[in-house]
Specification:
It is built from 5 helices and no strands. By secondary structure, it is mainly alpha-helical.
Length: about 110
């Protein structure tokens, strides 16, 4: 079951900027309330009330090593799909494959420089 502080914290997050400014103006130690943005108002009000914010854990991004050989194989595969789309007279898919091939070609230049 949620405590009163947790409910109040969720209510603060859902309030509009006008409502937050009204609450912040009642708080004696906050100055320049009308120039603050929502995030600043929330931080100031929570600090004044002693509500601690829990930081979301940051996700680790793992980069996969891509070789030029892999990219070129993908380009060949997309060119075959583009050729099939041309035979089927599917202009939309031809354009999509063209853009994907273009991006991969740029990627081969970036990988070879790194």
């Amino acid at each position: 079951m949620m405590t009163a502080e947790e409910k109040q914290e969720k209510d603060l997050d859902r309030m509009t900027v006008k409502e937050l400014r009204a609450i912040a103006s009642e708080t004696a130690n906050l100055v320049g309330v009308h120039a603050m943005k929502k995030a600043e108002l929330l931080a100031g009000i929570k600090e004044a009330r002693g509500i601690k914010e829990e930081e979301a854990p940051k996700k680790k991004v793992v980069k996969v090593a891509v070789t030029v050989k892999d990219l070129k194989a993908k380009i060949v595969e997309l060119k075959a799909k583009r050729k099939e789309a041309r035979k089927a007279m599917d202009k939309r898919m031809v354009e999509i494959y063209r853009r994907k091939i273009n991006r991969l070609k740029k990627g081969t230049r970036k990988v070879s420089q790194a």
